Amino acid sequence: MPTPRAAVLTAVFLVMAVIGAPPGRAAGREDPLDALRRQAAQARSDLEAATARLQQRQKDLTASQAKLQDTLRQLAAAETDLNRIRGPLASLANASYQQQNAVGALSVFGGGTPEQALRSSADVDHLAADQRRVIDEAGQYERRRAQLASAAQDLQSRNAVEQTKVQQQVEQLKQKSADLTRRLTTMLNKLDVNDQRRLEMSCDKGLAAKARTFPNGLIPDKYLCPLPQKNRELRPDAALAFYKLNAAYKRRFGRNMCLTDSYRSLAEQQRIYAQRPAFAAVPGTSNHGKGQAVDVCGGVQNQGSPQFNWMEANSRRFGWFHPAWAYSNPFEPWHWEFGRSANGSTGTEP
Predict the structure, then answer these.
(1) Among 167, 191, 215, where does a domain finish?
(2) Is 201 found in the same domain as 176?
């Protein structure tokens, strides 16, 4: 059976392809994209709730299976005890069959002297007490064995039913995710949404806070958003701001911005630092590794060009700017960053 956790991740990530940040309220008629985004967010919420229930059910089933194993161990021990006492029980039954004469106080009326009769009676009473103890012990073992056998059978039956339910929930969760993805994607296609809006909808700004908690250059793919430029990514808040910057740039120059770099993994930082240490940050300190920096081409890399001048005049409106250090130490007109204060506070990363 597939693990619930694997099913959970599959379900949530499938729907994440078409969900974004919570929608805002539009004046007048609601934007169809906002309605779609809200439905996708609700779908994600429903899947996450179902995932939590599934994980709890799996946890309960695991505990029940452990209890079953313990019960079976106790049952095996009870069977061993019962087998151990079957020998004395067989001997007792055989003796009772072979010696059918009077026992206990009735032996006083048998042959021999009164003293011998009393002594024989005492011996017989002692043997009878031992016999009763053996019989009582055997009865306790048998009752214990029966109780444990009944408990084990009940646990096995309930666990089999629960296992089936868990399997059904996993399949239902996967099916629900697939159905939601198809439905939402169909709705999105009908709206004739351009690439810009598709990117905005697939980039969940709510993941930005979590993205900041990961070490520099080690942000998992889940917490990065793709850019219009192929194979380029940024942290969600930086990516959403870049979409707007890129759209404004495209309106001005008729094409998307040209990028040579964006998020940079730790391995990539190490490779670049080995090639040109004077023009790259020490690995693990790069703003590229935080997912909040881009290196731009297409004219912006030339200070004084129309593209560079436009970026200087407009980038801060979208949360981007050219850091002070990049004007001189070293000189990098192509490097732009997201999220720092507008006063151009310096950093350590080229």
Answers:
(1) 191
(2) no
Q: Are strands 225-226 and 233-234 parallel, antiparallel or unpaired?
A: antiparallel
Written as one letter, the residue type at 89 is: L
> What is the CB neighbour count within 10 angstroms for residue 49?
10
Give the relative orientation of helices 236-253 and 306-314 as an angle to the nearest 10 degrees. 130
Q: Are residues 263 and 164 in the same domain?
A: no
Q: The dihedral of CA 146, 152, 155, 161: what is its sign?
A: negative
Q: How many domains does the chain have?
A: 2
Residues 233 and 182 grouped into a single domain? no
Q: What is the pLDDT of residues 165-220, one digit of tens each?
A: 777 777 777 787 777 777 777 776 666 556 777 788 788 888 999 999 999 999 99
Residues 333 and 312: beta-carbon distance below 8 Å: no
Same domain, yes or no: 178 and 205: no
Judgement on whether residues 221 and 328 belong to the same structural domain of the protein: yes
Tokens of 2: 């597939």
The terminus-to-terminus CA distance of the chain in angstroms comes to 50
Written as six digits, the tokens of 125 are 């009473």
Query: In this structure, are 54 and 78 located in the same domain?
Result: yes
Cβ within 8 Å of residue 350, ≥6 positions away: 279, 280, 281, 325, 326, 330, 332, 335
- Residue at a domain's end among 137, 162, 191: 191
Judge whether 219 and 268 are in contact, CB under 8 Å: no
**pTM for the structure as a whole:** 0.49
Of the listed ranges 152-156, 224-228, 245-249, the least confidently predicted one is 152-156
- Cα 109 from Cα 287, distance rounded (Å): 109
Q: Find where tokens 């404004």 sit.
A: 248
Q: Three-state SS for 337?
A: strand
Pairing assessment for the beta strands 258-261 and 233-234 based on DSSP bridges: unpaired
